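--- STAGE predict ---
source: upstream dedup step, 1 unique chain passed
mode: sequence only
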Amino acid sequence: MNIIKQASYNKNDFAIVKREYQFKGFIQVEKVSLRHRLFGLDQFTPVIHRELIHRPEAAGVLIYDNMQAKFALIEQFRIGAMDDSDSPWQLEIIAGVLDGNESAENCIRRESLEESGCELNELQHLFSFYPSAGACSELFHLYAAEAALPEHGGVFGMPDEGENIQLHLFNYADLTELLASGRLKNAPVIMALQWLNQKIHTIKSV
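--- STAGE serialize ---
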């Protein structure tokens, strides 16, 4: 049975009226005026205005070690979580933005060495998705990979880029509790750990 649901409309079903940049830095903010087709009607919306944040493509990887039954997460200060009621120091998977025409795979291998010191085995692509398509153009490529994890965590990152990253190691046995704890607050880490949880239970049931 084919369960793939195709989009109702495509790029020919909206029209840009005007676009202008409001800010250009590491990220760019653009004001876009557009019209798009309405569901069930052969007509378009009136002109609507949206602010669009442009971010480069990004990629991230969950590193796990079946031999040790452990996985790795990193912790670092995040400006987007500055007003979080618990802490702006977030638990995440290793991730970074693609550098120019760099592939997602090369980005991940580079970031893994910088943020954990780990060399990755074969990469497995899990999902590519828009973390916040309501306002941001970023496309995120999520992977998983096995690696020989160290016995203990440590501090990593590129100090000249303002990075101060703590590597944490977790046992597979802690996974369910961690997912239910409320400590995880970004989509890539939640998606990756749900994938790992399913993988572990599948292996146990075989």
